[in-house]
Amino acid sequence: MAMVGEAFLSASIEVLLDRIVSGDVPRLIKGKKLEAVLLKKLKPTLMSVKAVLDDTENKQITNPNVKSWTDELKDAIYDAEDLLDEISTEALWNKIESEYQTTAMKQVRSFFSSFNPFNDGMQSKLEDILGRLDNILNQKQILGLKENFKGENAFQRTPATCLVDESDFCGRDDEKEKIMKLLDPQNLSENQIDVIPIVGMGGLGKTTLAQLIYNDPRVDKWFHSKAWVCVSEEFDAFKLTKTILEEIKCRCDGSQNLNQLQLELKEQLSGKKYLVILDDVWNENYAVWEQLSIPFKFGAQNSKIIVTTRNESVASIMKTVPSYPLQTLSNDDCWKLFAKHAFVGTNSRMHPDLMAIGEAIVKRCNGLPLAAKTLGGLLRCKLDADEWNKILHSNFWDIPNTASNILPALALSYHYLPSHLKRCFAYCSIFPKDYEFEKEELVQLWMAEGLLQLSKDNGDPEELGKEYFKDLRLRSFFQQSKGKKSCFVMHDLISDLAKSVTEEFICRLEGSGGSCVMNEKTRHLSNVQEPYDVRNVLMHDLLMKSSLRALSLAGYKNINELPEDIGSLKHLRNLNLSQTSIKRLPNSLCSLYNLQALTLHGCNDLVELPRDMGRLINMLYLDIRETKLTRMPEGMGKLKDIRILTDFVLGDQSGSSINELGKLKHLRGRLAISRLKNVVNARDAKDANLKDKVNLKELKLTWDEYDEIDGDSTHDREVLEQLEPNTNLEHLVIGSYKGTRFPEWVGHFSFSNMVSLKLQDLFEKMAGWEEWLCRSDEAFSLLQELRIKDCPKLIKSLPKHLPSLKKLKIANCEKLECLLPGTPSISELELEKCDALQLEPLPCGLRKLGIEGSNMNDSILEQMLQHCTHLDKLRISNCSDIRSLPEGTVSITLKKLRIDQCNAFDHSKIFLYTSLESLEIGGMKDCPLLEERCEKEKGKDWANISHIPVIKIGGELII
């Protein structure tokens, strides 16, 4: 769609102009007369191009030749970006190499620099780009394009304080209740399974309606199992079966065989009432649907499948009841949704002039919720009638329906984005439809592409990227994923909009049968595959793309090495190798001087990093979680700009010392320092300077977990004392510490921001730790999670005042006799082998309780639970004196119960617990007899427990 393409071009040209006049470009060409002259000519040429872009946004509606003109211009702009990037890369190479070379080597390099073919190549490329741009400019008169045309201007950046409520639901209550009636078990159906299609055009709210039905509490009462599957354009029976299994079981055995998966799904659904929602179905092949649906036929009567689709022909091959056609919203409901997003912090009635304009805008949305929501977000907190009128009278409403599949309202929303957000949103076209992405992942990609416009006021690219992301999310370009709360997705129509901006410049391979046409204009290629896809990555082909900025091979289990030629990707900023089988990285990787992000998370076979990592001075992000690294290479302190370093592994007499951390002043987020036994001098730990790292929120300090207890405990204590972090720290883990006591900072009241504290695998030499002294009631006022384990002589005085504590676990503290802390907000409690604890009635907000290896008896348990009016999960293990459970409030609220190795327990009264959804009994002498008594529809006790959806006895699933 060319109309939104001009806005993208304008933003690109602004970035190019900024790079020409600042940074490495002027410094590198200094003294190179010809290149300087050419670059000076490039700037006014780009400005002349930019001057006509506003007019193209109007002329292209009636003149189709403008589209081909803008495509040629885009291609030339991309080439100019590549050229400037080459210049910057050369400057960086000179800087780093000069630091590593001897004086003699520098003289030799200086002598040969004048013969460097890079200079000739640069001149040729500059001349080619200028010639193409001149040719493009010459066509503007033929196309009738005017310079400095006064078109519609983009809004100023919206304040980040304006928030949007994501729980929008207007005017669909009647529709929801009509479908809920179809699901109601009292509404008996003649069909074994009812397939209910919800049909309507894109942006109408089909998915939102289905989600609200799926999450309605009545659904959990009516059905034993439920599953949500986003189908989209690829209807793959294997993937869909696997996803449904994962939704129902929360796991899958990893089978690559459709037959095995369908047999397992049949077993899971047999005799059970289930609800499955298949969202966004496009498949019109009856045979493919029939193949997928076979296991569904073994479910109980009145099971339901809801299908959302844009196409009635899709519904016709699947439905067993009439389709439910979703209608557009009324103007009143559409206005409510629009106003909810547009008038944040103010009442629309206080702005009658805007109401009149807004109502006219809403009419042009034609009852589509997505259009109303997006335009409302665009006008959020804008109270200027002129700006609202620009939206109402924009030429975008006049785009012919046949010219594009993009809703005018969405194209309009993109058009009025600030230029810095246009480029970032357009880049999202690399994601296939329904692709779930994390905020951090996208920000790293933006950084790699140089899309973040840093300023003196905001020089942190990661924080700026998060701000851009938030702006786009608040404008409804991104929405939170239903499946993964940490992930986001784009609505299909938003995805189409992003793709229309970049068109042939981005190629997406989607699914196992995906294909796309690549040509000389293709700049970005994305491919999402299965871990062992038969179409292996052709590394050679990737290495031919010398201008590659970002490369992700995440999840390819068949990749265990990288070629030495990886060093040829000089422009590479982002390399993601997470979840691969990589063992070592070639040292040539360290010549990628532009590399900003290296992700190795979950590379379980990785044993070492390249020796010259210190050369990667642009590195901002290094994720090495869940690897087998035994040390850090020397020179890690040279990565002075790094923000995220997830782990720092201390080697045995080799690699980087802990004092290298002191040079990394910008560390933030999470840091895990392991193998602390290898710290030779405690003063080196002090040089790590953790106390000054104010942005560090999570810190994990571990010695060797399986180390023999023969180290120097005094030395360990001195090391820990010197590793005192900043008081801004929120999460602290100390593991396998061999000291005889804690330094004073551990547990000090100044750490008032602490949210989580875990002390684990300690105390082998702290057998004398008897009392935890807290000097202030303000200590740990924000602490939400506390875990204490293996304290053989801890007797009394846990912190008494923990007002925010939600999770508490105490294990193997057999002499601990004090009362539990004052924790009114606690929701999860686990006690293991703490026989001496003084137990009083637990707070009413407790939801999850686990007791193991205790001298607990029925009366103590009843006293503990007398106020627990919200308890829904209870686990009791190795408590030989427990015979029964309390019959009070707990019997009404409890949903999950697990009893292990409690041989005196009488299960006969479990039927009193009418709300139970899951029951597990194991490790008891009479388990075989119990299995017989509870046998489905035959056992003596079946009538008492048949209301429970999931029952396991002795590890065997009964239901």
TrEMBL record:
GO terms for molecular function: ADP binding; ATP binding. Residues 186-344 form the NB-ARC domain. Transmembrane segments: none annotated. Gene3D superfamilies: 1.20.5.4130, Helical domain of apoptotic protease-activating factors, P-loop containing nucleotide triphosphate hydrolases, Ribonuclease Inhibitor, Winged helix-like DNA-binding domain superfamily/Winged helix DNA-binding domain. Residues 658-762 form the R13L1/DRL21-like LRR repeat region domain. Coiled coil: none annotated. InterPro entries: Apaf_helical (IPR042197), LRR_dom_sf (IPR032675), LRR_R13L1-DRL21 (IPR056789), NB-ARC (IPR002182), P-loop_NTPase (IPR027417), Rx_N (IPR041118), WH-like_DNA-bd_sf (IPR036388), WHD_DRP (IPR058922). Pfam families: LRR_R13L1-DRL21, NB-ARC, Rx_N, WHD_DRP. Residues 10-101 form the Disease resistance N-terminal domain. Residues 430-498 form the Disease resistance protein winged helix domain. Keywords: ATP-binding, Leucine-rich repeat, Nucleotide-binding, Plant defense, Repeat. One of its GO terms (biological process) is defense response. This is NB-ARC domain-containing protein. It comes from Gossypium mustelinum (Cotton). The lineage of its organism: Eukaryota, Viridiplantae, Streptophyta, Embryophyta, Tracheophyta.
